[in-house]
Design a protein that fits this description.
The complex is a heterodimer of chains A (about 350) and B (about 290). By secondary structure, chain A is mainly alpha-helical. Chain A has 16 helices and no strands. Chain A has one domain. The radius of gyration of chain A is 21 Å and the shape is globular. Chain B starts with a helix and ends in a 16-residue tail after the last helix.
Chain lengths: ~350, ~290
């Protein structure tokens, strides 16, 4: 464990080779995946990587700025419906996905303006209500198909590539998700992202330092909305039918569960959580009708034992280990504290003020 | 007339659920997603006590209270075993903890009662309608409205006139200070949660005869209650009463006269109130403030 004061800089000092190797492995896996899993399982994996992008976009809010939005389904669904409409007019894929991003982003911007003055729990409940109002609206609008949604979405061929081939659809999916993930990585590690982190740590202090915290939150909310829109748009292509279910409020809760399972404080936390939850749901829905119970129990267990998610497992273990050795006095703060900067990867960094008084083991 | 009666009845049911929610939010600072789950458990327990038999009104009342108390016991157990561990977490995390509890409750209900809807008839004495100003009003509505009125009066007495009410207000105001002054915060939390869940159970058992019960009612009912809490003002019981009745009446009116807008009544009300008063009708601005 690095010392608390310098740990924040660990990202900068860390050699790039392991990271590059990791990304290379991911890339090779993505290319070989259709051959590895077979085309029947490909649909599941396509939806899973979409969930990875969706959860990562939500983590810009929760992990990046402690902006508790419970209405991200609205933007996910907006993206899905935008692509469905564009596909029915045979728009080319990039244009349709751009439309999804723009529509969702615009909707998110309007939402952030409506909720401008709210923070914390009030914000959570307002976003939930707004998203649910949009759901109610879509269900009633006949040209969006009402409860039945829009079926029969096909992916028009792009530059001679035809997407009836499942592997090609997978590649389209993965490339778009990778672009989205890259954008979120850049945003979280930009000056904007760091300012957002400072608002998360102490909004009052950030405001006194001259940061317009409401504007920062609104911009973060809009960017996250764009990401959700891209994920929703891809989902429309993969699923080939869009229903109002993609707008329902439980759809907002799913990515939050994912990023909490994986770890809200890590860039890859939502991704890990998304893969885990998707795989689990896929298995449980086949094995039992009663999957809600097990998901709930798992979530609660993770919250209580590892409030910082599964990626904090090494920390929790080393915490227990050092606690066993010291056996007295200084309570290790790692597992208790809430949030650490996103992007600190698997290094543990507690809030500076919290660990200052702590003796390093 | 029938519009007013239906509106008041629906509003009272909503109020019963929302009052517990706003109490838990105001005192404990927890957005309790599992509230809808306890509402559903209450409805099922009411069914379980009666097993779909129609009974006399007095027995029905007794069983409703018994079922609500049983729900409160389940809630208390959940608070002692699970919820207690969530208080020390950041509010967003604890909010998800309550969502996890909602999933668990729904899963358990599926396990016990299955996915097929069950129905509970109204008690014998209240099946018929009575006529008031040439409108046919179900007698069951009277029971619901009566229960709501008793609840409002009881809550006001409890909060304003008893020692427990004073402790509760103190904890809601500043739990740290209240603890220093000798209030057993832990106990107040447990009691508040049990009370809130009792109200959720009461709402559930009373709503039982008016809906067909599936585990999903946990998810559908909670959203309206949240909206009521927002509109009424966080932590304000009277505010949620006004908001719930207003919503019930507005919805009943729109269903009759402008059906295409009926589903939006919730959002119309929210928009109308929140533009003027972002903190809700009777809320304080405390919860809108920035927190560390």
């Amino acid at each position: 464990m690095s010392s608390p004061r310098t740990a924040g800089l660990a990202v900068l000092r860390r050699p790039r080779a392991p990271a590059a190797a990791g990304l290379l492995t991911l890339g090779v896996l993505a290319i070989a995946w259709p051959q590895l899993v077979g085309s029947s399982a490909l649909f599941f994996w396509e939806t899973t990587v979409i969930a990875v992008l969706f959860a990562t976009s939500v983590n810009l809010l929760f992990g990046g700025g402690r902006i508790p939005s419970f209405g991200q389904a609205a933007f996910y669904g907006a993206g899905a419906y935008a692509v469905a409409e564009a596909a029915s007019r045979s728009w080319p894929v990039p244009l349709a996905l751009l439309l999804a991003v723009v529509v969702a982003g615009a909707l998110a911007m309007v939402t952030s303006l409506i909720t401008w003055r709210a923070a914390g729990l009030a914000f959570a409940m307002l976003t939930l209500a707004i998203a649910q109002a949009i759901y109610t609206l879509v269900v009633q609008v006949s040209w969006l198909g009402g409860y039945n949604g829009i079926p029969g979405i096909s992916v028009p061929a792009l530059a001679g590539i035809n997407f009836y081939n499942p592997a090609n659809l997978w590649y389209l999916d993965v490339v778009c998700v990778a672009i989205g993930m890259l954008v979120f990585w850049r945003v979280m590690h930009s000056p904007f992202g760091h300012t957002l982190n400072s608002i998360r740590e102490d909004p009052v202090r950030a405001a006194f330092l001259g940061v317009n915290i409401r504007a920062y939150r609104a911009v973060a909310f809009t960017i996250a909305g764009c990401g959700a829109g891209l994920a929703g748009g891809l989902f429309a292509y993969v699923n080939q039918v869009v229903t109002p279910d993609s707008l329902y409020w439980t759809q907002s809760a799913t990515p939050i569960i994912m990023l909490l399972l994986g770890g809200i404080t890590y860039y890859w936390g939502p991704a890990v959580g998304a893969v885990l939850l998707s795989a689990l749901l896929n298995y449980l829905t086949q094995a039992t009708t009663n999957y809600l119970l097990y998901i709930g129990l798992l979530l609660l267990a993770v919250l209580i034992v590892m409030p910082r998610g599964l990626l904090s497992l090494p920390t929790v273990v080393s915490d227990l280990w050092s606690r066993g050795r010291v056996a007295s006095g200084s309570r290790s703060s790692g597992a208790r504290t809430g949030l650490v900067p996103v992007g600190s990867s698997t290094d543990t960094v507690a809030m500076p003020g919290e660990q200052d008084q702590e003796n390093p083991p | 007339m029938i519009v007013i009666a239906t509106g008041l009845t629906d509003g009272m049911l909503l109020f019963l659920v929302a009052s517990g929610l706003t109490l838990i939010l105001g005192v404990m600072g927890v957005v309790n997603f599992s509230h809808g789950g306890f509402f559903m458990i209450g409805a099922y327990l009411g069914y379980e006590f009666l097993r779909g038999r129609a009974v006399s009104t007095w027995l029905f009342l007794l069983l409703i209270i018994a079922a609500s108390a049983a729900t409160a016991v389940v809630g208390l157990a959940a608070e002692r075993v699970l919820f207690r561990r969530l208080y020390r977490l950041p509010e967003v995390t604890s909010l998800l903890g309550t969502y996890a509890l909602l999933l668990i409750l729904e899963g358990v209900a599926q396990l016990i009662w299955g996915q097929n809807p069950v129905t509970q008839p109204e008690p014998n004495g209240l099946v018929r309608v009575f006529t008031l100003a040439s409108a046919q009003i179900p007698r069951y509505d009277l029971l619901v409205v009566g229960a709501g009125v008793v609840t409002v009066a009881g809550l006001q007495l409890l909060i304003k006139r008893t020692e427990f009410g004073r402790q509760l207000t103190a904890v809601a105001e500043d739990r740290f200070m209240a603890g220093l002054l000798g209030v057993n915060v832990n106990w107040v939390f447990a009691a508040t949660f049990a009370l809130g869940i009792f109200l959720a159970g009461l709402g559930g058992t009373l709503a039982g005869p008016t809906l067909s019960m599936v585990p999903d009612i946990a998810v559908t009912f909670i959203l309206q209650s949240f909206a009521i809490v927002i509109v009424g003002g966080f932590g304000s019981v009277l505010g949620s009463l006004i908001a719930a009745l207003a919503l019930g009446l507005l919805h009943a009116y729109l269903v009759t006269y402008v059906p295409s807008l009926a589903d939006f009544s919730l959002y119309l009300l929210m928009a109308a109130v929140l533009v003027v008063r972002p903190q809700g009708l009777l809320g304080s601005t405390a919860l809108l403030r920035e927190t560390r």
